[in-house]
Every structure is written in C-alpha cells, then in structure tokens.
Amino acid sequence: MTSGGNYGWPEVEGIAGREDYIDPVQQWSPDQASPSGIAITGGTIFLANLRGQVLRAVPVADPTTSTDFYAGEYGRFRAVIPSPDGELWFLTNNTDGRGTPGAGDDRLLSVPLG
After folding, report:
1. 61 Cβ contact partners less than 8 Å away, ≥ 6 residues apart
2. How far apart are CA 111 and CA 46, in angstroms?
3. What's the average model confidence in pLDDT over 39-60?
4. pLDDT average, residue stretch 40-44
5. Per-residue confidence (pLDDT) for residue 100, from 0 to 100
6. What sign for the dihedral angle of Cα 69, 74, 78, 83?
C-alpha cells in the first residue's frame, strides 16, 4: 500500500487499469468472495467468504496468490479468528435464510495452524 495513494474509491472498484489509480493486487467477484471476516496470523491473511463458501488464505509475503480451503464443504463462512491454543477457528452461517442449512449448522470449526 502507498500511504495517501489513490486506489480509486468511489470512482472504481477493483482493478481499474488506469495510471491515475493504484490497482489492488487481487480481486474476486462477489459470487466468489463476499468476504465477511478476516484474520492475520503466522504470515497469512485468512478470509471467510459468504457467497464464495470458501476459507481463503493469502500469504503476506506474496499477496498476489491465494489458496482456497473447504470450497462448498461447509457452506457459507461468516467469521475467522486465530484461537488462543494455536488453531484457526471459523464459523459457518447457513441458517440466516441465505444459505442451505445442514444438520448441526451453524457451527464453530477449528483446524491446526502451521
């Protein structure tokens, strides 16, 4: 990021491809992302996504790349946070009238970090 840089808002959203704006390093369409939660831990940015139904990991060292986890496996992801015991907690959100609820939704899930 460039302090005081012109990233285009509100004139443009995402990559403008114009010299007068600084483009983001990545962008996703709303059907792939709709981020609802973010956590940064261990050199990785984790994004919970509602409509994309994915937990996305973006390495701080190379923010032009990303890896998707649990695509469509648990439905919509509402929040993500590192836990005090070294895991990553994430919350599903399928019972709000926009998701497809399954048995036991909504749930708090965890995976080890590292």
Report:
1. 43
2. 13
3. 95
4. 95
5. 81
6. negative
Residue 15's φ and ψ, nearest 5 degrees, are -80, 120
What residues contact 28, with CB distance under 8 A and at least 6 apart? 52
Q: CA 80, CA 69: separation in Å to the nearest integer?
A: 13
Is residue 97 pLDDT above 90, yes or no?
Answer: no
Distance CA 66, CA 55 (A): 10
pLDDT digits (tens, 9 = 90+) for 50-88: 999 999 999 999 999 999 999 989 999 999 999 999 999
Measured CA to CA, the distance from residue 99 to residue 110 in angstroms comes to 20
- What residues have CB less than 8 Å from 1, skipping those under 6 apart? none
Burial 70-108, CB ≥16 within 10 A → b, else e: beeebbbbbebbbeeeeebbbbbbbeeeebeeeeebbee
Residues 6+ apart with CB under 8 A from 45: 38, 39, 57, 58, 59, 60, 63
